[in-house]
């Protein structure tokens, strides 16, 4: 019968960086395990969480990966400020634009057509907003 191993506390920040340096020649999986980045399933199988380990290392190094700075969302496409007419004749304004404008489902707009432009004015918005 296997002896149950005591769970190591997750190391973070300077402690994590110091421990990784101390572990020198070990594999990355062994380093993650030694720094506490693993779980034991109910069947007593050990699973190393490499993604959590890598994220902790990145954070400990002070690397900022989220350019938006708000820490929400999963990334995705950024607004290119260009759209094309779809084969069904529709113009689709993607979520990158609506998020950037802080729009919510159900927000309504008046559409004004120019020769080669479309102007949207939010219904209920003051005259100073456009």
From TrEMBL:
Record keywords: DNA-binding
GO molecular function, one term: DNA-binding transcription repressor activity
A Pfam family assignment: AbrB-like
GO CC terms of this entry: protein-DNA complex
Domain SpoVT-AbrB: 80-125
PANTHER family (UniProt xref): SLL0359 PROTEIN
Name of protein: SpoVT-AbrB domain-containing protein
Organism: Rubidibacter lacunae KORDI 51-2
Source species taxonomy: Bacteria, Bacillati, Cyanobacteriota, Cyanophyceae, Oscillatoriophycideae
């Amino acid at each position: 019968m296997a002896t149950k191993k005591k769970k190591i506390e997750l190391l973070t920040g300077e402690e994590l960086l110091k421990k990784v340096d101390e572990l020198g020649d070990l594999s990355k999986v062994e380093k993650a395990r030694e720094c506490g980045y693993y779980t034991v399933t109910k069947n007593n199988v050990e699973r190393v969480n490499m993604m959590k380990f890598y994220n902790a290392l990145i954070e400990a190094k002070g690397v900022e990966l989220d350019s938006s700075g708000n820490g929400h969302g999963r990334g995705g496409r950024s607004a290119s400020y260009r759209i094309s007419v779809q084969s069904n004749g529709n113009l689709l304004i993607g979520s990158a634009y609506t998020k950037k404008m802080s729009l919510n489902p159900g927000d309504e707009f008046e559409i004004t057509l120019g020769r080669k432009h479309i102007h949207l004015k939010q219904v209920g918005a003051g005259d100073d907003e456009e």
